[in-house]
Every structure is written in C-alpha cells, then in structure tokens.
Amino acid sequence: MATPSYRNAKNVGHVMIGQGAIAQLGEVLAPLRAKGGPAVWFFDHFFAHNDLPKRVPVVEGDVVIFVDTSEEPTTDGIDAYTDQVRKELAGAMPCALLAFGGGATMDTCKCVGNLLTNPGKAEDYQGWELVKNPAPYKIGCPTLSGTGSESSRTGVLCNEAKNLKLGMNSDFTMFEQLVLDPDLSVTVPREQYFFTGIDTYMHCFESLSGSYRNVVVDALAEKALDLSRHVFLSGDMMAEENREKLMIASYLGGLAAGFVGVVHPLSAGLSMVLHMHHGIANCYALSVLEDIYPVQYREVMDMMQKQGVSLKKGICANLTDEQYQQLYDASIVHEKPLTNALGPDYRKVLTPENVIARFKRM
Amino acid sequence: MATPSYRNAKNVGHVMIGQGAIAQLGEVLAPLRAKGGPAVWFFDHFFAHNDLPKRVPVVEGDVVIFVDTSEEPTTDGIDAYTDQVRKELAGAMPCALLAFGGGATMDTCKCVGNLLTNPGKAEDYQGWELVKNPAPYKIGCPTLSGTGSESSRTGVLCNEAKNLKLGMNSDFTMFEQLVLDPDLSVTVPREQYFFTGIDTYMHCFESLSGSYRNVVVDALAEKALDLSRHVFLSGDMMAEENREKLMIASYLGGLAAGFVGVVHPLSAGLSMVLHMHHGIANCYALSVLEDIYPVQYREVMDMMQKQGVSLKKGICANLTDEQYQQLYDASIVHEKPLTNALGPDYRKVLTPENVIARFKRM
Q1: Complex ipTM, two decimals?
Q2: How many CB pairs under 8 A join A and B?
Q3: Domain B14-185 classification at class level
Q4: N- to C-terminal Cα separation, chain A
Q5: Structural domain boundaries of chain B?
Q6: Inter-chain contact A24–B9, Cβ cutoff 8 Å?
Q7: Helices (H) and strands (E) in chain A, counts
Q8: Could you read off the pLDDT of B256-272 as tens digits, one per residue?
Q9: Residue of A15, A23, A245 with shortest CB distance to B11
Q10: Are the Cβ atoms of B248 and A21 closer than 8 angstroms?
C-alpha cells in the first residue's frame, strides 16, 4: 500500500486574545513598521460612522479602505479594491494589511493581499494552491464571529460571470496574526450576530458528519460546536462571556475547516443567485435539509427560537425557471463537500427536481 | 482601569498528522535543504538500536546525536550537547534541527537550538523571555506522547547546582514544524506510555483548576482532557486509534500550556532530588494530593488500575533530613503554579512539615 499524502496544515502564527486587546495593536505593529512601508487598513463600511478607526494606530501615509459588505465579496470587487490599494500605495510595498470586520471584510483583505504580490486577476486564483508568491503580512481583527475566516486558508469570492462561489485556497491566504477582542462585537445587530455566528456550528457539524476526517480537525470542530451550542442555547447569546466564547469558537472552527456537506453548496447557490449573505443562506439551506440532518435541523430551529430570530418564508417562491436552474447549478457544482456528505453518487439523491423543490420550500 | 497586557501567543507553524506521515519528511525538509547547511538530528538513545534513523532522510554531512534520556535533561547536559553539535558543524549553520523522542529529546533539541544562536550557557536562559536571537528551524517528531513539548514554548532543564528545575520559556524555543505520526509510538513500553501520556491529563486539569485562565486555553485543555480520559479509560490504551488520540491530546495540551498547580512543583522536587522522570513523578505527586485534587486523584487511580500500571511504594521512605529539605525547597520555589492553585498564601497550607509528610507517604 502506498503511503497516503498528508496535508501539512499551517497555523495562524500569533494570536492575542482578550477584552480590550485591540489597545495593544500598536505594540504588535511596531516591529512591522520598523521594516518600512505603510499599513493598509480594511474596515467594514459600518465602521465609517464609528470611532473604531480613530482608536487604532493609523498613521499618515497609511491606506484606509472601507469595504462595502452589503453583499458577499466578488472577484470583480476584489480586482477593484486591489487597483485602489495599488494606486494609493504608489509603488510602496505595505508593512502590513489589517482587517476589521466579519468574513466579507477579512476575505477582502486576504484576497487583495494575494493580488498585491501575484499578477493577474482575482478569478485566476479561485481554486487550490494557485497563489505562488507570499502576500504581505496580514493581521485579522474580527468584529463579527462565525465564519472562521480569521483562521482559515481561504478567501471566498463570488464569480458572477462563472456563476461560481469559490475560494482562493492557499497557505498564503492566511493571516499571520490575530487579535481577538470580544469588545469589537458588541455593536453587531442581533440577527446578524446569530446568522453569522451559527456558521461555525454549520461548518463544524458538516465536517464531523463527513467521511474525510482527522483527529485534530475533529477535536477542534467538536470544541467549536460545544462552544456554539453553549452560546446559542443560553439566555443571552450576546452577553460579554458569550461574545468571547463565540469568538473562540469561530477561531477554532476556522482552524478545523475541513470538508463541509450539503448545507454549504445550497448556501452557495443562494449567495450566487440571490446575493444572500453566507450565514443566513446556511440557515435557509439547513431549513430544507431536515431529512439529511434531522438532529442539527432540530437544534438550530431551537436556537433560533431561543434567541428570537427567524427566517422569512418564500424567498425562492417566485423565481424564473432559469433562476431555479442557476440555483441548482451553483449548488451541485460543489463536488467535494457533496461527496463528503453523501458519497460519490450524490447526484442520485440531489436530482434537479429534488434540489429545486427544496429551494421552493424556503 | 488600565488595559491588561495580553500575551501574544505563538502557534506551531505547520503540523502534519497521520499514520505513516514520517515518510513525507523528505518533502518537508527539501525547501530547507535548498537554503544550504546540514541538518542536525536528535534521536532518543533508544533509537540507536532501531531502524528509525535509517528510515528518515539523513544525508552525508548531517549531524546525528543520540540523546541519553535515562534522566531528565540538565543544564550541564545541554551545554555538552551544544559543544558537540558546534564542533561537528564546524562553523556551518544548520538548515534544520530535528527531534525524535519524548519530552527529554525534544527539550534537548529545543534548548540546543537556542544556544546555537545565543551566547553563553543553558542556565543563562532558564526563565522567561531571556532568549534574544531566533534559533535555527526546528522540526519535532514525537515518538512518545504526553509532555506537550512538541507544541509548548519551553524546554525544561534541571539545574543541579541551583537545585532548580526550570524551562527556557521563549517563542524561540518552539518548533516551527511538527510531524505527528502515531506509528512512531508503537514501540513504547506500556508503563512509560502511561506515565508520559498522563502528563497531558495532569497539566490540563491543573490549568483548568487554576485562577489564571482564558477561553482558548480552556477550550484546548478541555479537549485534551477528554481525549486523555478516552484513551486511559478504554480497554487498550495502546490501540492504534488510541495512540493517535493521545498524540493529538499531547499536541493540544502543549498549545494550552497555561499555569499548572500543586502536582508539577512536587513532581519537580522528585525530578531534582531523585532524578525521577517527569511523568511518573507527576503520578507520585498526585498520589499524595487526594485532599487538594480528590476527583482527579480518584480518576488517575482508576486509569492506572484499568491499564495495569502501578506505583512502587516507599520511594521517599528512607532519605536524609537534608534530602527531605531539598525536596521541599525544589517544590516550594514554584511560586506561579502554587499561587495559581492555592492563592498567594500557599505557604500556609504547604508548610515544610506538610510537604515532607506527603513525600514520606509516597
């Protein structure tokens, strides 16, 4: 028997954790500044009207970008941000890129980073191991927990022309440093906190239900699931202690990022066709997968009730046949997770009729 | 209130996990070899009569050291290994250091690494943040699970002249790469497997019982404890699946390394005065701490019974008064863990009479 080829998993280099930790950002930046070059700051556009950008050590000559996160990041959007950053840098190589936001902002920072040191366009790097040159040093400061983008090796982008949601999967996509400060998530609206936060639960249970596994990934995913359950089944999911727990769950869940299952492909379809955010799209997907994931379906419905959040019905009720076909196509294309969940014959279960009927029930 | 100063925790850079993963070591080494310089290989002396050194990609010009692990590493021992390595390197800087063994071999590799790039002797670096220059790239391949040395930032040394067991605590002490191959632990004798393996349980429960905590450390420590319990309360602790679980537990436990409690200081006393190995010394320590840790005392006694291992009684029965005093001194000096477990007034509980009576009961 040939020895299997194991992946050499990269970890996030440094992690600083604690309430108010963001105050130590200057200290973290100092050795990078010493090497020269401006810093590039990516803030979720929400922070344009918030004091956060004034509380962090931005200096003259730095580049500040407010990322429009009303929709999921797109390949075209990344190309535009890259052009903007390049222009403002005027030939300088940045000492660091920093991201303050949720998955959309962090993925934008991660993908722009890759394009600053690699030629071509964002879509050239959608896939696995396509990035050739190391990106500038990146620091992630999540302000919204759940996606695991802070610790994962992907930056997920919607490619409109190809009707494809796919990440830049590469060790170079990862952050080198994280600052996990639960104070940063205090201003998140409740529904957004829930729908983004539950993403950790989703990708961890999908990884644990699949056939591609390893003991470390399982251990991290189980712990992330425990923490998520604790947060969403407790009285106030946004209590300070719970915001810290969810931040850690998201971080561990991102490190555990293995293969997902049926939720994520259907969710990708919704993001592509209806421009829906990943977290809420996951919840819609699970809401019509009660036959495949009965236990998790019940648990997430309980969590939603407990936290007083709900899904509006009928979101896919009146689409055109072409749109239903697009939903199907943008879902079924995700071979790896679907095989992980249902085996190689997944198309026998997930026929176009079966999948489209599920979308119509949402 | 001033913002507290949080530690910026470093992670091990890369981790490869799986049965037979050691076969990919050549692949891992290739980019390091490309930069030039020989590799330095540290093997536990057990492997001098085993085929492992022939199964790994040692090439001409590399330095191979067999580490005598009959006793815990000492500052004098590290100085001697450093001289030997320096002499064999004849002025070259190594492309990598590699360690195959348990905590003693890995700590030897870690400490010699620091001394290859920092002047002076091993004892100059016992403490916190004393190492100034980065060590050469280090690859850890544990063959014995439990100590967490593979993922911790310390290399623990006995300083005979100072009657002090203390580590070189530094980010530079850490491995950059780990290869966790459960096949490597198949030849470990059962008693050694148990006494070393249980170290993870010990430092994780002590960290979780203490007052210095954070949510990530807790999460990792809890998971490591779960895995340890599973391994030692199951039928055959050395079944292949259990060897993999224990290897992961040890890795997570090392990452979680926080502050320990009363077990480790008493254990340090035994290592200093009786030259006892850390793992079994921990078990002796817990065996006389049933009043402080009743639950863990019971659980470990159950595990020992289940796995058919036992502690010989009377190991400290006939020592001199001077030796009892040395045992006390080498234990009580560990202020941080003792404060963590019992608060600042720990000396009121752990008087010389109290502690010496405990040693006499072992």
Answers
A1: 0.90
A2: 95
A3: alpha beta
A4: 47
A5: 14-185, 190-361
A6: no
A7: 14, 10
A8: 877 889 999 999 999 99
A9: A15
A10: no
